[in-house]
Design brief:
17 strands; alpha/beta; 8-stranded mixed sheet
Amino acid sequence: MSGLRELIADRIRTSGPISFAEFMELSLYHPEFGYYARAAQKTGRAGDFFTSVDVGPIFGELLARQFAEMWRLLGPMGSDPRTGTGVRPHFDLVEAGAGNGRLSRDILDAAQRNDPEFYSVIRLSLVEQSPSARAAQVATLGPHASLLSHTGTGLPEDLSGVIFANELLDALPTHVAVMAESGLREVFVDVSPSTRSGQAVRFVERLEEPSTPRIAEYLARAGAEMRAGWRAEVNLAAEDWMKRAARSLRRGFLVIIDYGHDENELYSASHASGTLASFKQHAQPPDFLQQPGETDITAHVDLTAVTRAAEHAGLDVVGRLDQTYFLLGLGLADLADLSLHQRLALKTLLLPGGLGSTHKVLIFGKGVGRPALKGCSYRVRMT
């Protein structure tokens, strides 16, 4: 990815070192050279990492059950103000960070097969930054393509239904803070001065004054008492995304599925080195600064900050729990007649130490109160 290396190097030579958050944004989301721009699908055995979608359609089938319950709670029938007669309004199903639409395809397959009434009211929106992934969405959706009403890089407005995001927040560009002997500093990326003529550009870290006072304010809200040498990610973009999602939602639910910790654990000695990681072909490159656009970059989500941002934006907390308990609450016992392949998929989704315990489910509501959702039957079970 020499094109992106040179682009980043030129920016640094022109304007000085850039924050790690800017480096991560360019590495992942540059429209031509970014990691997510270069292929419609990055996950699975042939990709760089696994998600719950990669184990098969069962994950989407269980989500379809939850979304159908949410639709019924919103009320499947409305009234036309001009005539007073009953109408069947649409239900907005909005996937953020949708990729090529595989998860939405699994959800729609299940809804069409098991709940035709719910399927008939769905209005689908897919939000995705990657041009190549967006270009593949219609083909991926197949027979459901007619339900697609919006595809783009931003959330549509005035939504009534559910916005959901599976492993989106962990990939948003994050600032990296370091507690130096002289006080709080931020990690910036610079070009090594030792790079000789004719050699490939080499990027190095620089510690500078924080680029925004929001970093210190964020850590203060978290009660983070960082010791000298500790590192921590400060994902301001995740807070901002939650606020935008809340504004887009007129009435309904916001479902976040991601891996992370509450702030009391995330900013403790157990994570004193931070959680920033990169993946390429299911391994972690030793120095991903040298491979912009070629590797995934991710950091654990601050679940407390995400929850706080949602509440400040007017959303109610409906549930916070491990993915295992969320899926069990959706009636896993009903899926008794499974093939061996499907049982292995469920093992990956549910067992402690796998996706079931590392991934958390946060559900928020707007204008719906705090209903007792099936997926939240174990609402206090977050490990």
